[in-house]
Amino acid sequence: MTFTNIERITPVIGFMQAYSHTISTLKKCSRCKYVSYCNKSCQFVQLVSQIIQKQRRYPPCTHDDEDYFPTTVDQLESHLKYARKDNIESLLCELQQLFEEDVLPEPSSLLNMYGAINCNGFSILDNDLNGIAPGIYLRASMVNHSCDPNCQVISDGRKLQLRTVKDVTEGEECTISYVDLMDPTKERQAELEKRYHFTCKCVKCIKEINPDDGLGELELRDLHWTKVLQLCAPYLKLDSSNNLLANYYLLVRLRQEAIKVCVHIQAWDKYVEMGQLNIESLRYHYGPYSAMLGLHLLDMGNKLLEMGRLREARKYLTEAKSVLEITHGPQHSFMMTPYVQKLLDL
């Protein structure tokens, strides 16, 4: 079974410190928690301004090219008819204040750029898969969606790798998922319709059925850590009393929440128990080769190693290596860190 790194694409991305306001009035980026902006509009305008500056350095290609890929953001799908008029007018006004008239693209190009960013943006992720910044990757934006994808994207700093996670035959389309595959069909389709303006009709969407239960009402916010565990306790064991499927998406997320609680209160035996219960569930939802599964296995192996349970640790670390070599590749910066290499070579 051969898996290859299809391509790495440099993002069009930028950040700005909003100096025109006092520090006390600025709002930190909700993702990186480092850069500050006046508001969301300010953040969006900065991304657009960086795109404008970058595109001035590279001439666009024509649609007559044999292997056409977009070289400017305004060549991407924009779905402008769904855009809010007041948002567009505000964007144009702020950009006119930032740029000279001869630098600013034509209004039609700016409008397409606005729409393209809204429906083609990627989240740049850190090594723990936390979103830290938005980015536009022109070639990656051409990859279509599937709820049963044969590829995944993985961040490597500011670069993006598109990697196959299944066998792909010659001429077969490469696909990724635009949404969280653990979400039930209705939620996935609602998100796809809202942001990307299409309805997915894949086999998974047609056949998938999720049972109803009382977990939909369960609210975990603003609770003390120990209360979260108490509230989740009836659902955190594999038995028939709760009438839930072991891989039911809310049950899996409850366990993920419980794992975070265990880390906070340093209940490591419970951490391992919850982690073991979620391994097959992550495999069920995301497939046998996913970054989510690989990192989970790595964390499990590392914790078991710290607890002195060497045989179990080796089992999970061996499996983590087989998954991460597919999802990240051996040359990924994360895989080349001494800490990770030491664990995976145990």
UniProtKB/TrEMBL annotation:
Keywords: Methyltransferase, S-adenosyl-L-methionine, Transferase. The keyword Repressor does not apply. Signal peptide: none annotated. One of its GO terms (molecular function) is methyltransferase activity. Coiled coil: none annotated. SUPFAM superfamilies: HIT/MYND zinc finger-like (SSF144232), SET domain (SSF82199). This is SET domain-containing protein. InterPro entries: H3K4_H4K5_MeTrfase, SET_dom, SET_dom_sf, TPR-like_helical_dom_sf. GO terms for biological process: methylation. Residues 71-179 form the SET domain. PANTHER family: EG:BACR7C10.4 PROTEIN, HISTONE-LYSINE N-METHYLTRANSFERASE SMYD. GO terms for cellular component: nucleus. The lineage of its organism: Eukaryota, Metazoa, Echinodermata, Eleutherozoa, Echinozoa.
